[in-house]
């Protein structure tokens, strides 16, 4: 059984969300802890600008009380990160097909801050890559993730919901233009050259920004991105000094601590001689202290302050929602069929082995006769009958259990055929 615990822009503000970010380096330890405390057999952690979601997998046959099990996973999750249980009020949870449906909606961009955005796909791919081909992920999460990618592709192909859609990164560039005027006159500094920073710098370049500065801890990466956008690379140690010269700075790094504090901002503003500075923080956890918003001359935008662009984007694409949801249900039904067949696999295996064992014992008695040719024919006919009866019973089991959808009947059949001849 798969499940998830999550927090997003829909349930909590950024100052709450950033407390539950899961990094790549924390995955192995979290898995070992949940495996020990809750018998969780697999996990995948998705942390983006606007959400953190922990997907987990357990043996459903060992779960007698799903709600109690889920409560234990939540408690262990918070305990591992030494977080207060008061955070539970901001969490949402799903189990079984509801968890899969949620992931499918996330992957297709239906649950994103920017409806239809595509950046989430690469973020899910990265999250899955952290656990893929390890003992930390099980077959159900693996199958669910692949079906989520399939759902995303189908929705985008058949509805064009992402046509002209923007990511948070490109939405930030749109907001710059609205607040500062023509992009060609903007002098911009992007701190961070990962996926988000790259999208910001490239979109600025496409809008005509010729003063496009890029800074990154690894200077070579800053140079590479600057070359792509005909900009200029700035050494990470020098980006603070550059703030006195730009109109806007956009932070996109994965730093766990603030890179721009109130004290630094106050010093920068003194050097700017009253010239205003626009600061965008597209990070979770935040790269900019919230108190920077109180510094005279600074206008700070973080992920919670993108409503203007978000609302405009939603109005353009809301007509595609019903069709997209219908496609998700189609793919979800395929995933459910796979789960049901997986659930019945033990029963089918038990039936097959039971008939083979009966045939082997009975055929052995006939082999005692001297007629070897007759014994061979008996064996062949026995194989034929075993296969025929097995197919007949399996077909009947599928009908009785509604293709495996009735777990109680599946379990009963497993027990019924679990006998020796």
UniProtKB/TrEMBL annotation:
EC class: oxidoreductase
Q: Which domain of life is it from?
A: Bacteria
Q: Name one GO molecular function term.
A: glutamyl-tRNA reductase activity
Give the Pfam families listed for this entry: GlutR_dimer, GlutR_N, Shikimate_DH
Q: Keywords assigned by UniProt?
A: NADP, Oxidoreductase, Porphyrin biosynthesis
Q: Which residues form the active site?
A: 49 (nucleophile)
Quote the pathway field. Porphyrin-containing compound metabolism; protoporphyrin-IX biosynthesis; 5-aminolevulinate from L-glutamyl-tRNA(Glu): step 1/2
Subunit structure comment from the entry: Homodimer.
PANTHER family reported in the protein's UniProt record: GLUTAMYL-TRNA REDUCTASE
Protein's name according to its UniProt entry = Glutamyl-tRNA reductase
The scientific name of the source species is Carboxylicivirga linearis
UniProt lists the gene as hemA
């Amino acid at each position: 059984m798969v499940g998830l615990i999550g927090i997003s822009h829909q349930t909590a503000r950024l100052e709450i969300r950033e407390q539950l970010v899961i990094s790549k380096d924390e995955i192995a330890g979290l898995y070992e802890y949940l495996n020990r405390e809750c018998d969780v057999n697999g996990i995948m952690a998705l942390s983006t600008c606007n959400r953190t979601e922990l997907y987990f997998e357990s043996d459903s046959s060992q779960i007698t009380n799903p709600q109690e099990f889920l409560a234990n996973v939540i408690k262990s999750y918070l305990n591992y990160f030494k977080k207060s249980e008061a955070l539970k009020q901001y969490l949402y949870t799903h189990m079984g097909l509801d968890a899969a449906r949620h992931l499918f909606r996330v992957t297709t961009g239906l649950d994103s801050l920017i409806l239809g955005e595509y950046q989430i796909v690469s973020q899910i791919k990265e999250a899955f890559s952290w656990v893929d081909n390890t003992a930390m992920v099980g077959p159900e999460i693996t199958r669910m993730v692949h079906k989520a990618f399939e759902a995303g592709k189908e929705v985008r192909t058949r509805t064009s919901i992402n046509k002209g859609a923007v990511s948070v990164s490109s939405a930030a560039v749109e907001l710059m233009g609205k607040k500062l005027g023509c992009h060609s006159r903007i002098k911009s500094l992007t701190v961070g050259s990962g996926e988000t920073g790259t999208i910001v710098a490239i979109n600025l370049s496409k809008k005509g920004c010729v003063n496009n500065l890029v800074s990154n801890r690894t200077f070579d990466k800053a140079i590479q991105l600057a070359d792509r956008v005909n900009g200029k690379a700035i050494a990470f140690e020098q980006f603070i000094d550059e703030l006195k010269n730009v109109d806007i700075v956009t932070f996109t790094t994965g730093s766990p601590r603030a890179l721009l504090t109130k004290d630094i901002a106050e010093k920068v503003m003194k050097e700017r001689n009253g010239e205003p500075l626009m600061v965008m923080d597209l990070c979770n956890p935040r790269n900019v202290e919230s108190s920077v918003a109180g510094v005279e001359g600074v206008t700070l935008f973080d992920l919670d302050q993108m409503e203007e662009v978000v609302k405009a984007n939603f109005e353009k694409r809301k007509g595609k929602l019903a069709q997209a949801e219908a496609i998700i249900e189609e793919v979800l039904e395929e995933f459910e069929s796979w789960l049901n067949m997986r659930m019945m696999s033990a029963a089918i295996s038990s039936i097959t082995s039971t008939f083979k064992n009966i045939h082997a014992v009975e055929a052995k008695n006939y082999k005692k006769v001297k007629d070897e040719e007759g014994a061979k024919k008996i064996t062949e006919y026995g194989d034929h009958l075993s296969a025929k009866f097995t197919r007949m019973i399996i077909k009947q089991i599928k009908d009785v259990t509604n293709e495996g959808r009735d777990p109680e009947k599946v379990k009963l059949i497993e027990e019924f055929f679990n006998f020796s001849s």
